[in-house]
Amino acid sequence: MLCRSRGFKVVFHVLATSILWSAGACDAQRHASSPVDSSQIAEPLVDLMAVSWIHGAEDCDAGRRESDYVEWQQVRYQVNTVIFRQNKCSNYEAPFVYLFIGTEMALLIDTGATLDAGAALVDSIRAVTDLAVIVAHSHGHGDHRLGDDAFRNTDGMTVVETGAGAVREFFDFENWPDEPVTLELGAREIELLPIPGHATDDLAFYDPISKFVVTGDTLYPGRLYIGEWREYHASISRLATWVENKSVLYVMGTHIEMSKTPNVDYPIGTTYQPDEHHLPLSVSDVTILQEAIANMGIPRKTRLGSFILWPR
Ligand SMILES: [Zn+2]
Ligand SMILES: [Zn+2]
After folding, report:
1. How far is the CA of 141 from the centre of ligand 1 (A)?
2. What DSSP designation does 50 have?
3. Cα gap 245→177, rounded to integer Å
4. In this structure, are residues 264 and 273 in contact, taking their beta carbons and an 8 Å threshold?
5. Which domains does the chain have, with CATH numbers?
6. Ligand 1 ion local residues (Cβ < 5 A)
7. What spacing in Å lies between the alpha carbon of 221 and ligand 1's midpoint?
8. Cβ-contact 155, 21 below 8 angstroms
9. Distance 187 CA to ligand 2 centre (A)
10. pLDDT at 190 over 60
11. Closest CA to 108 of 160, 169, 184
12. d(Cα 138, Cα 199) in Å, to the nearest integer?
């Protein structure tokens, strides 16, 4: 695959449709990318600590009728790094979705909480890149994959099925969950680490260009629901070790449920969060989480400032 025959570790899983698509897409990408100076690629275009995300409305029925209503907010963090957030008036989960674009293909993490939102997201992504897209997931819960069908029906998009078995096979993990794998997008190598515990198929993604670690629902400014405590504990330890030797700017989750006031979250199911916490967390939050778990005998709900440990 794709524009030239480099040694991708996983992209041979990409379907024939993607390969056909790529022939034209590569020409488009070469054309589109030629004016971009490589030194500009990593340049942040916005301050993510100051971004105001769409956070719902007091009256969402009225909100959806507004002329400026959008299904997704799109924030271009770098030339080739885009973050989307689903509108809280579309679905209260309001998940975040990440797009990392390489020179030869792109990686999308998650597809949103509804099929309609997935269709809108396909259009947004095709407006940003013509490249073939691997559509992976932070994990298999519905609020992160219910847009999948819109991607399955789009040329050049390859959806990675959810579930630990499917994820392991697609990305060719040899030692799940202990060892990471890499995904080469072309001048951008994303590293993937299994971190099951919230679900059974959670992945963390490290991108060296944005310096993001995307942690899905495993760590984000909100309620960290833990399905399997022992697995989660092991995953957070593995995550802490993994990030130790990396240059990490932000730890990026897939929801915001906390307010700006430490330890105070919005009610479950709310569609209006006017004073919400910023999205980025940091490596120090990984440490806070790891230490809290290590020091906890019996798993219990614990407020840790920017997030809440929430064993099921
Ligand atoms: Zn989840
Ligand atoms: Zn979620």
Report:
1. 5
2. T
3. 19
4. no
5. 11-33+40-311 (3.60.15.10)
6. 141, 217
7. 13
8. yes
9. 30
10. yes
11. 160
12. 10
